[in-house]
Each structure stands twice: as C-alpha cells, then as structure tokens.
Amino acid sequence: MFDSNTIETLVDGILVTLRITALAGLVGTVVAVVSGLAGLSPLRPVRWVNRIYVEVFRGTSAIIQLFWAFFALPLLGIELAPTETAVYALGLNMGAYGSEVVRGAVVSVPRGQYEAAIALSVAPWKRMAWIVFPQAIPSMLPPYGNLAIEVLKATALVGFITAPDFFLEGQKLRNAGAISTQELYLTMLIGYFVIAQAIAAGVRVAEGMATRGLEGRG
C-alpha cells in the first residue's frame, strides 16, 4: 500500500521528470528550428557544421551523451548539476532529430509560395518567417509530438547521473522496501503512459490550431 511519504516521493519524482521533459523539449525545439534552417543555408560551411552536429547526436546513444556531459565536461571546466545536464543533453539529442523534421517540412512547402514571395520582393528572412515557416508547422507537429514523447521516455535514463526523476525515486523506494516491485512498475507504467497521452493531446490541439490558422489566412 502507498503511504503518504511514498506518494510524496513519487510525486516529487514525477515533477522532476515533467520539468526535465518540458525544458529539454524547449531546448530541443529551439535547436531543431535553428539547425533545420541551417541545413538549408546557402553557405556550405554552415551546412557542414550543422551536419556534423546532427550526425553525432543521432549516431550516438542518449545515455552516452548524458554520461559524457556529466562526467567528461567537468574535466574541461564545464560543470552542470544533474538536472541541468539532463535538460541540455536530451534537448540537444531531440534537436538533432528535430532538425530533419524542420528541414523536411520547410522543403515540402510548395515552390509557388517561394516564387510568389520573390515576385513581391519580400525579404528572405520575412519570406521564411511570415510565409514559408507558418505553412510548414502543421507538417512538423505530428513527428514533433513523437520526439517529445521520446524525450519523456529518455528521462528514465537521467537517474544514472543522479537526477532525482520519477524512475530513480521509485527505485529508491523499492530498494528501501517501501513499495513492492509490482506496485512500483505498474505505477511507473501508468505514470509515463498518462504523461505521454497528455503530450500527444497537446500536440493534436496545436496541430488543429495551426491548421485553422492557415485556413483563416487562405
């Protein structure tokens, strides 16, 4: 049975998991947009640097990235708290995958939209910000939702760098005998599932709003 201390500990862990997921998602979103647009840059060095970043983070394990950021960066004079390390490492990981989502969505916008903007002498940055990017957003949102859920699931790894997330706090309770194995993992299954469904619902709402916004413009 769950006593008040057990419930409080699990809730604290869930709040840390939610915080890491939200902040890593924010970092990942910003990085994905910047990286995705950098991948379309006419400047070859910018595209090369961006490609190196994307391939390194997509080609290595998230847990190795967490370990490297937490254990190796201090040797270079950069030391972060466990939660901060989790946010930046998972955010950069998400950004690498999201980069391709952004780039593909922007490329999928009909060429006629670019040509019309050029014909109207719209500046390149305004063309992207006001015309092309808004039309690409609905295409980005479904895969973006998947990435956000992947970040949520990856937070279960942050306990390995001592961030007190839902998984780590639950493991501590289990090791202390405060909760049985069956109760703990059933609770975790339900907890992660509910959060994932909330993320998916939020993305669906955002997708509907983005689509209606474009219809209104039409």
Describe the structure.
The structure is a single chain. The protein has 218 residues and is mostly helical. It has one domain (4-217): MetI-like fold (Orthogonal Bundle), CATH 1.10.3720.10. It is built from 8 helices and no strands. Helix 1 packs antiparallel against helix 7 (166-175), helix 4 (82-108) crosses helix 6 and helix 7 packs antiparallel against helix 8 (181-217). The protein is flat and about 70 Å long. The model has no long low-confidence stretch (mean pLDDT 92).
Please render the helix and strand layout as text.
Elements: H1 4-38, H2 44-58, H3 62-72, H4 82-108, H5 111-119, H6 124-154, H7 166-175, H8 181-217
Helix pairs in contact: 1-4, 1-7, 2-4, 3-4, 4-6, 5-6, 6-8, 7-8
Give the ordered list of helices and strands.
HHHHHHHH
Strand content: under 5%
Cα-atom radius of gyration: 21 Å
Question: What name does CATH use for the topology?
Answer: MetI-like fold
Mean pLDDT: 92
Name the CATH class.
Mainly Alpha
Rounded to the nearest angstrom, the distance between the terminal CA atoms is: 57 Å
Q: How many DSSP-defined strands?
A: 0
* Computed structural class: mainly alpha
Q: Which parts are unreliable, with pLDDT below 50 for 5 consecutive residues or more?
A: none
Superfamily at the CATH H level? Answer: MetI-like
Q: What percent of residues adopt helix (DSSP H or I)?
A: over 70%
CATH architecture: Orthogonal Bundle
What spatial form do the alpha-carbon principal axes imply?
flat
Question: Biggest sheet, open or closed, and with what strands and sense?
Answer: none
Tally of structural domains = 1
The number of helical elements comes to 8
